[in-house]
Amino acid sequence: MVDLLITLTQHEADSNNVTIAFTMGNTALEKGHSVEIVLLSNAVALAQKNYDDKIDIGAPFKPLNELLPAFIKAGGKLKVCKACMIHNGVKEEDLIAESIIITAPDVIDLLMESKKSLQLN
User: Fold this and answer.
1) How far apart are alpha carbons 77 and 9 in whole angstroms?
2) Coil, strand or helix: which one is 22?
3) I want to staple 55 with a disulfide (CB 3.0 to 4.6 A). Which of 31, 64, 81, 121 is the partner?
């Protein structure tokens, strides 16, 4: 069971919510909680190699190319919706190595079994 499940549906079209999702994820990890971020809809693009270079909303927030690696290094899990990948033309070979591809039943299980969730759309 994960302590905090963050679901995210946006990519660079809503850089604020992307940045907030990873900022909150990192903060929860720093506080000793387990965290998983699930990328749904357009957000699957975020798991692509070098895509994180596109998002930097400025101070006081860190750019995504710092937040994402820090999230993974601290033990956060990055889960990516397979159907959303197919729909958005994101290929498995283009994902960062730490990506975990999941399906709709996995998303439902994660939501139902997590202690808390944060949804950013």
Assistant:
1) 16
2) helix
3) 64
Using CA atoms, how far apart are residues 43 and 64, in angstroms rounded to an integer? 13
d(CA 26, CA 96): 18
> pTM for the full model?
0.96
Please give the structure tokens belonging to residue 108: 């439902």
DSSP string, 53-79: GG----TTSPPHHHHHHHHHHTT-EEE
Bridge partner list, 76: none
Buried b (16+ CB within 10 A) or exposed e, 31-57: eebbbbbbbbbbbbbbbbeebbebbbe
* Contact call for residues 2 and 36 (beta carbons, < 8 A): yes
Residue-level pLDDT, tens digit, the chain, 121 residues: 899 999 999 988 899 999 999 999 999 999 999 999 999 999 999 999 999 999 999 999 999 999 999 999 999 999 999 999 999 999 999 999 999 999 999 999 999 999 999 999 8
